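Encode chain A's predicted structure.
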Amino acid sequence: MSVDGWNTVLVLGGIRSGKSEFAESLVTDAPVVRYVATAPEGDPEDTEWATRLAAHRARRPGSWTTEETTEDPRRLADVLESAAPNEMVLVDDLGGWVTVLLDPDHQPADDVATIAELAEAIRGCAARVVLVSPEVGLSLVPTTPLGRAFTDALGAANRAVADACDAVVLVVAGQPVWLKSVGTATVPSVPATATAPTAAAAAPVVASLADTEPTPEVQLPDVLTPTPPAAPTTDSGNPWAAPTMALPMVSTGLVIQPGMELPMPDEYAGPQAVDRLATLDVPGAGLGVLDRVVGFAATTQGTPTPAAWGSVRVLLLHGDHAGGAAAGTVAGESARRAAQARAGQGALARLAAESGASLQVVDAPASAPIEDQPALAPEQVESALRYGWRLAEQAADAGVQLLVLGACGAGTEAAAAAVLAATAGAEPPAVLGRVITNSGEIDDAAWMIRCAAVRDALHRTRRSSRGAKDILAELGGGDVAVATGVLLGATARRVPVLLDGPVGLAAGMVSRDLAGQARHWCLLADHGGHPAVRLAADVLGLTPLLDLRMDLGEGANALVALPLLRSVLGLSAALPVHPSLAGTDDTDPAADEPESTDPSYADPDLTEPDSTEPDFAEPEPAGPGPASTGADEQPASGWRAG
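Encoded structure for chain A:
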């Protein structure tokens, strides 16, 4: 289920227009779906009608629950009022509902009042709702009183329901046309001159000029461990006005809004790279599941022979969440971890140093208690998104080839669970991991407080818009907002991102509404055993490569896996094609010479290193901690281009 910014949507269309199939596609990924059937069974001898109903039933997954309102049309409003926040309700369709409403068996009935009750139930429904209805008024006026009564009642119902819904879409010949959407109601108007040509290295990007005051300047952190790269130069004192390859910049700053068209990876290079692996001279079956690393690197680098990532930067987001979301955490613990990382100490700094990656600690805005009030103000969300975008731009300008995203704030898991509940219909207790104290004990009381905080936050926002920026403001908070900006900025600059932990995955869920291309630039090395990461990865289509189940903090699993991923890429780029597939003249000069039977004979290629071949060993750190080599300033030595 994509995050389209709506909580309730009406899908209109003519007969055989594909409206039902489109509506079903909106709820495919929802974990809990209640299907409300409104059409009567009809005459048992009407085989054509029975065939239509059977086709609808056959499309429903077995996990869906079905309810019928054919006996009492007023029951539809009751179903919507009783729906839970974690549910998705699909009503198909209002034409059948109106047919039953006008049936003589239900007369006398006040159809106007019943339609008004339905519209009010839609407005107050806590669940996400998709309603299907035939569009009327596109044909001749019926010649019978009953036909005219039906079209009048259905037209009135469509108008009332469309007014109550967040979004309305008309399906014509299988093609959806959005007539009403949340984004168009909340996003500032876009001048016709807002779209500008992009640089040669980037795909077309849609941007707009801001109609509001400029967002206050935010200072970027400049602390890097182990070695800071040269800071990008800019002729402007405003960091948001620095040049970008992705979007045009104006004096009012960058506007990040839903529906941006950012670059997509090369869809052809990935399959070509995987096919090439099958031709390499290897003694076994190949790389196993790690061939996905080669395919991902090939699509993001645009070549069938991708190179190992040389320059890697870790962005550690530090932003605390107040209230029940942080239950069970020691006050000041996250600040201590952030300071430790800045000093080049601790597990994350050590892992970064050993892999030759730079580590940048990023201070995100603190978030208010989500159970009582929005986590951030709207202007803070805008600033945080642009802040994250500029962090990605800084990395791209410094030659970084891969970003690793992690977080160390208090309450981050609860905030991520709230985001998942709002975007994927997840049940908070199912995606909230156990709370482990510093002494290694399980704190169930703190876990229940976190669950209650997320539950209260969802109840508080049950009638709020589910747009990306609204979710960040109400539930996500500063670290998720900055992480979302990083994903968008990295996508614009074609820099892949290695995700690790709930914050990065929550940002991936939110980013789909702003730019759906972002998830294709993300790689998940390990789920870490976290339920929120598992669910978000499944929705985003990210398959974890490993199952280490380490818990050293966000970012650590990715850094542990990084040397393995680099080795796989280096190996795939360096190995030659098998002689049987490439021909012996070019691949093995000694293939035509008779094999020596002298037991004293030794192949010099097996006894002496070839001085013309590169050394495929990874560079060793110059010393423990932050004194190791700065990967941002030198090329990787662990690969050879194919």
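The chain has 22 helices and 13 strands.
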